[in-house]
Amino acid sequence: MEISKTVYYRPAPVLPATLLIVDCTCKPRVVPLRGDMTFGRIYNGPPCNITVRSAIVGRRHGEFVYDDSEGVYYYIDNNSLNGTYINGVKLERYNERGSRACRLNDGDIIRVDRKTLNQPHPEAVIMIFCTSLRYDESWKLFNTSRLVNITIGRGENNVVRLTDLATSREHAILRREQVGWTIFDNNSQNGVSVNGREVENSSHVSDHDVIKIANTTIIVFGNVLIYNNPKESTGNLAVHIEKKTVDFGRKTLLSHIDFQVDSGDFVLILGGSGAGKTTLVKAILGDGKADGRIILNGQNLYENFKSMKSQIGLVPQFLTLRVNDTVKDTLMDIADIKLDRKNYSKEEKLRRINEIMEKVGITNLQNRLICQLSGGQKKKVSVAYQLVGFQKVFICDEPDSGLDAASRTQQMEILSEIAGNDKIVMVITHEPDDAIDVNTGLSLFNKVIVLAKSTKDNAGHLAFFGNVDEAKAHFGVKKLQDIMIQINPPYEGGKGRADYFIDKFNAMQRRPMYE
Amino acid sequence: MNDTSFFTQTHVYFKKVFRISLREKAWKFLIFAAIIASIVALIVGPDMFTKFEPTNSGFFTLASACIWIGIFNSIQSICKEHEIVRAEYRQGMKMSAYVAAHVLWQALLCLAQAIIIFVLCCIFMHFDQSPHLLISAYVENFVTIYLLTFGAAVLGLMISSISGTPTTAMTIMPFVLIVQLVLSGVLFTLKGATEGFSFVTLSKWGMAAFGCEADLNAIPTGVQKSISAIPEAKGIVISNPLQSDFYKPQVINLLTAWGAILGITVFNAVVSVVALKIKNKDS
Questions:
Q1: Which architecture does CATH list for A236-507?
Q2: pTM check: above 0.90
Q3: Coil, strand or helix at A404
């Protein structure tokens, strides 16, 4: 679990509309809404676009209608027998076709149930209209049958532990009553709402009610709580460098570098010597500002350097750790620096450190001095060191240098796993083909950036940006490392075709992705 | 995202510096201090408080030894880890906390060294012959030795902060030591600008503290002693050009000297923080 202080809740960026559906099977599912769609129960006739298992839902119960002029969805009840409730209000019959169209907003609760909503029908269906929910959001079920008090929050002692940073450590308490529950807001930073209504101090919660805590949706469903557990999303990193010069503008090191990588991307940075890899890394880190913009999650790094610098971490080529300190002390100290005492207890920090050591595979080395470790082990400690904080982007400068082939692959697997954890990992390596999935034999990288030094202006240019297969096709090679042969100058053993590939890439239609 | 306080970070870095210093055999600094103090005390101690010259040069040598010991403690402690500092600064380290941790560690190390120096000096020097101004001559001389060593250690930190590498720091060190020795006012009479510069040296104020504590002006020079032994020369007054107003045995002089040393120390610590911030500022 990520450890941080509670952040202010901001509505997530608008995503494609989805419908979270919970029917009597008690298995939440997210259905993407794609234009006009019909809704009804499963039966032997022609199915609706959206179907549920419920006897109280009509065969063609309602419709979702998309108004593309406004870009909004409406719901119409088709004069169904049991009707449809939206946020607790039943849609009334309007004409022969059905009810009035009800405009849907993010978080609206669409329910097919009997009139007494606080005593829901066993086969009632709840649907939540969402424009802030990811299609692949994971949902959890929590059995409450033996519990009287359920604490909800980010702290480790909570019964329902959430990872969303907008959730307070001890956010709320759900207390069982003779009928239903009462939810108490623990004076949380971002509050609690029930069925869209903000909770002042406490509020009654009936079966099938929907509780919203920042980015988390909790549905009370009999003796089960159904909730999502959204992770902090790192968003994307957009790099737009006009140029990077030194010597008071006389020498250009980088020119026209534009690309965007997204959270989860494991990015390979390739380039010959002097192509500007290190300059690019420094520009992204903000250590050597370039003419241009580095946009992380919509914020310009150069304009907010002080507050954003810690979001981009560097695993340097050479060790920058104190060698006469133990692995555990090194990690614990940086945890003490990065994680403030107010929000994180000693135990939480220790748990975080242990998790990281486990993930990186250095648990057995924790009491060793760093100077006693091998090169590969030191690299792992460097990676672990960066993982302690909240970096959204990791830039690794030759994390595999000096390692044998097996260790290189293992190191890359670890980094790939970090990227898979909703981070952006960018790696400079000269052995890109060692980063393969041992099971599939496919490259672990999903994006490739190739920098090449142009003979026209002696500056580093983007010779390619795209996925691995496209990169191989672009350069006409079978292995990633052969790209270097194509672009390196002849005196470095290459074919000297850097200018050709820079021009070829520039000729490809590209729109600026940082916008 | 990060808002760990200055005090939390200072605590973390102090623990780290303490731990690593012990692993890096920090006790060797105590042995250096013992060896240097032994040599100084053995050579200059017996003649001190007998005549002005040996007392003056004895205190000067003692002050110089304290400054050398202090600078040597810390001269490499920051410059050897500039890359680490840069990486940690990105992670949210506060430079002020980092420097404060080093200063605290030096305060501790210098305390141990000052005790060693003082004990060895007590064996060979007769501090009890000095008048006391505040508490006792022993305590006052100990405080002076401690402040000088600690002040020099922080000066070393400052040099270490502005130096890019240990080699650069070790190259700068002799120049700084020479400046301290020359501007102390003991070897040469300072006038004009040089006298002005001397007010920012530890050696000047160290000598002032030792001098006023020992009532140096009252100790006769060799010539004065010889003349006074001749009955025919009674009434002839020979002045001592090395006498100084700072050596007058007044509490204010002692406190001024200590205050000046502390002031220089604080200034050097602030310069260290600023230098490190500038060094690691985004370009």
A1: 3-Layer(aba) Sandwich (3.40)
A2: no
A3: coil
